[in-house]
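Q: Structure for this?
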Amino acid sequence: MKYWRASIACILIMSISVRLVPGASIGLPYGFDVYDVVSRIRSAMSTGKFETSMPQGPMLYSLLCELVILGGISPEATMSIVAPALLSLIVIPAILYARKSVKDEFAAIIGGILASSTNLIVHQTGGTVVPEALGILFAGFFLSLFVQKNWKDRKIAVLLSFAALGTLASHHLTTLNVLFGIGIVILFKIISDGKRGSVRSEVRKMMPIFIPLGLAALLIWKFVAPQHTLEVVNLTLAGASGLTLAVGGFFAAFVVSMACRMIYRRRASFYLAEKPFIFAIITFCASLAILLIFHLVGGMGMDMLRMILYVGVPISVVYVPLSVTGLVYTVNSRIDDHSLACLMAFPTACLSLAMFLVLQPGFGTLAYREVSFMLYSILPVTGIGLAEIIRKASPAKRYVAAFVLAYSVLALASTSYPSRSYLIGLSESYAPSDLRISEIVVNITCQGEKIDTDVRMGNLLLYYSGRDINWVSNVSYWTSPGPPGAWLGKSAMAGHPVPIPSNVEYILVSEEMLESNGGVVVDQPSRRFYPLPDAALRYLEEKPGISKVADSGTAFFFYVSRH
Amino acid sequence: MPLRFEVEDFALTFSLLSTILVLSFLGFQIMSTPRRSYIAIYAISKEGKVFTSNETILRLGDGMKFMIVVENHLGRPINVKLLTIFTGDLNFTSPEGCKGSIVNEQVFTIDDKGRSVAEMEFSVTKAIFGQNSITVEQVDVNSFNHEVMAKSPSSNQTFRLIFYLLIWSDDEGRYVTKWNDGINDHTSWLQIWFELVPEAVE
């Protein structure tokens, strides 16, 4: 393709730019998850020794430490500039995967453009400095190698193993998706081979990848990092009933069987795939209508509606029509069985898992975490969908399409850092004064003293103390939701200040929690967001015996005397 | 001349357009996001930690040592005045509306990213302990006596010191209570409640 390298250079610039916007504009790492992640290595960044167990693969933690220690870069600069820039390389494996699978450089470039503008991490928002970003980077390399059939080539085999291990060492959920995807590739291959009467050696060749990777993942999840994957599986099963499991299983199987049907028949048709612009308009109207109906029947509050509209509608309008068009084209094309199986399997794995989860009570809400890998693995199909639309269009229409799509990219990019009003009142970014007061709090309190605050400020306390802080509302994120935490959570839920419980010695309040400010208390135990009434802050300021011992303008630290 | 826009050209044009748009957005976002500045103020005991409950039980005549640390991150040097207000008023609304006596004033110049530490030793030197109330008539701050009149119930922590920070405004030619962080105005103040008990009987 003409301008192949120039196009890749543009995509890289765009990917880096999109991921640098939040950190560069505020001069600090963006996203409160980032501080939770890095709190585990706060001391290791200076001593080089890990003192806290890692909840999942240690790869990102090691990388950040190396950047800080060997690179001589401050932790804040590393997290706000260097790490997002490095992790924006996520577009390279996306382009490689698309190029190898659909064998169309133009489609690969389009896939890369979409990857560069969409923030492909779990929350769709926030910083890229989370293990998932590195996990998807390695998984992307894995997919780009897996889609090639020449695994007997020693170089490819070594690289494939390296990518698999990198994924395993980076992120648990991405590893689970890759494993599930390989399982479905095997199923698809058996089906397409069965049509010819015999299972070919390719299926057998996949086993040396699937079995060791699966066993290694199980051992790590069981013995090294039990907090996340297996615990969530157990809690999901504990919260589910036989009926929800059966219905979820049925829908998951239905998704897989529909994909199997397309693979087997090698034929697909969809009327709207021929009318992409009408399809996009219908998707836009449908995504609005579905959400509005949910809202009107009381299934969704205004805050949640606004957030899903902001993030979900641009992603749906861009990805759904292009993916369906691409899928119809790919299934009907002469693409080889293995590439088709890979292209179909990974998005199918995510979609079926999401369908299963969404029907489970409690932890079903985690289904949204499947979206990122689903979007990433469908990029080649989306790319070929757009490529075919453009190829069929007249030259004049291509000008219009270029502008429309460039603005779509901008809309996708803007989903990465919505303002607080589109995030249920939650602010992902911090003011420097929030960071400083958290550092002061860690320095002026003694080890073990009980501090009440919300998740947003609590992550800063974890960060500055290297997780050595007695944050009373901090419970394992993956435990079942319980009643609201200490004083802040209870007061926010009650809508008025409640008496301060005896297990609270200090209270750290930020302006971002206050109702008058449009903020919320992100209560860890209940996993609910409630605005903190302004009366609660007045209560702390007025109640005799509650001393205000630190003030940074945006956050305040109170000491509760027991005399 | 008819428009010629080949498929091969599309990728680069599309990439360039998107890149220019996103870079413009980046530039706009960075330019339009104000740099957040702030002043931090905190109170610590002479050990550098928050007061414990025992440290806030003040015996008549005994001294209570503490430090008020003021940090300047406003991006410019500032002149500040730290007022120490003593009060027994339980109906508190804000430092401005508080019924109390100013018992100490300290003025500092703090460079950008600098900090100043106001060290204080406070004691109540004259007080009348009634049946249900305590009336404080004289306090001592850094060896200077101040006549005050503060009355409060005798149970638990009912007296307090309020530390109120004023910032010099060149525009207004006087000390003002508010400073701006780039978006919003703020005031800086702290308070420490303590319990006053009679002096020990030998």
